[in-house]
Amino acid sequence: MPTSLTDTTTLHNGVKMPWFGLGVFKVQEGSEVIESVKAAIKNGYRSIDTAAVYKNEEGVGKGILESGVPREELFITSKVWNSDQGYESTLDAFETSLKKLGLDYLDLYLIHWPGKNKFKETWKALEKLYKDGRVRAIGVSNFKVHHLEELIKDCEIKPMVNQVEYHPHLTQKELLAFCQREGIQLEAWSPLKQGQILSDPVINQLAEKYGKSAAQIVLRWDLQSKVVTIPKSIKEQRIIENANIFDFELTAEEMQTIDGLNKDERVGPDPDDFMNGFTE
Ligand SMILES: NC(=O)c1ccc[n+]([C@@H]2O[C@H](COP(=O)([O-])OP(=O)(O)OC[C@H]3O[C@@H](n4cnc5c(N)ncnc54)[C@H](OP(=O)(O)O)[C@@H]3O)[C@@H](O)[C@H]2O)c1
């Protein structure tokens, strides 16, 4: 079990990835994202999750620079957007992201959504970037079991990470078990269901028992489920609060109770339906 904010999981290629990080979806480019990234790093975060489509990579890069923490101590993720899928276009998109971030390598680069026809070509580009040493680990996002099976059938390098929507209303048990069998680290996006999980009465009862917030209970459940988590907040107090989860432990029974809240309910699109952003 991770015991601090800097603890890491070891990906199947040996690269160490922090269990906990900051997400910056819907965080505005400019001072908002710069200040969020700086607040997180100042308070001990070492992992930042962005994406080309968030349109805030420049600010993330500035936040990193202004944090004063050496680049090699940080773990930076970005993602190739749907309309850039394909071999050459992915290689170009990677360079654009890197330039905006002001970095000379990424720690993790993900295919943002599977789409339908192009993820194998896109994956070949990620394999090239990995082999060329431009990125320390490569992975996918929003891949269901059938997408992973399809990719694994033909790929040279298995994805190291699958980042998916994951919270107590969408516990993804089958996908989690599949990823664990295949040595693919599962990572939770919208771990707080974009705030919607925080009013759940069961979560709040546990919060009261432990003297913690609802957010802390849910994020602790992520870690005890062996799922990397990247909650987003633009408020320094919440950035601190969310990471303050290393001083208590949910019992096995409580873990099961939270698992039992599953409703297979998403805040984001179903990956099988989500084609938005593809150029046909
Ligand atoms: N791969 C993908 O397709 C994908 C999709 C979605 C998200 N993501 C990644 O996952 C990250 C996290 O997901 P998310 O941003 O969608 O949602 P989230 O982390 O589940 O929830 C963020 C929301 O919760 C609020 N919040 C945060 N901490 C709180 C606390 N302690 N108490 C009360 N409210 C709190 C935030 O408000 P304030 O900011 O006002 O505090 C924000 O409205 C994203 O930022 C992104 O990096 C990836």
Strand order of the largest sheet: 3-4-5-6-7-8-9-10
Percent helix, as a range, is 25-40%
From N to C, what is the helix and strand string? EEEHEHEHEHEHEHEHHEHH
Largest sheet: 8 strands, parallel
Work out the helix count. Answer: 10
Shape: globular
Q: Determine the N-to-C terminus distance.
A: 45 Å
Q: Please state roughly what percent of the residues sit in beta strands, choosing from under 5%, 5-15%, 15-25%, 25-35%, 35-45% or over 45%.
A: 15-25%
Q: Which structural class best describes the helix and strand composition? A: alpha/beta
Mean pLDDT: 96
| Ligands | NADP nicotinamide-adenine-dinucleotide phosphate
Radius of gyration: 18 Å
**Uncertain segments of ≥5 residues (pLDDT<50)?**
none
Query: What is the β-strand count?
Result: 10
Short description:
The chain has helices at 31-42, 57-67, 87-101, 119-131, 145-154, 173-182, 201-210, 214-224, 236-243, 252-259; strands at residues 8-10, 16-18, 22-23, 47-49, 75-80, 106-111, 135-141, 161-165, 185-189, 228-229. It is α/β, with parallel strands linked by helices and 280 residues long.
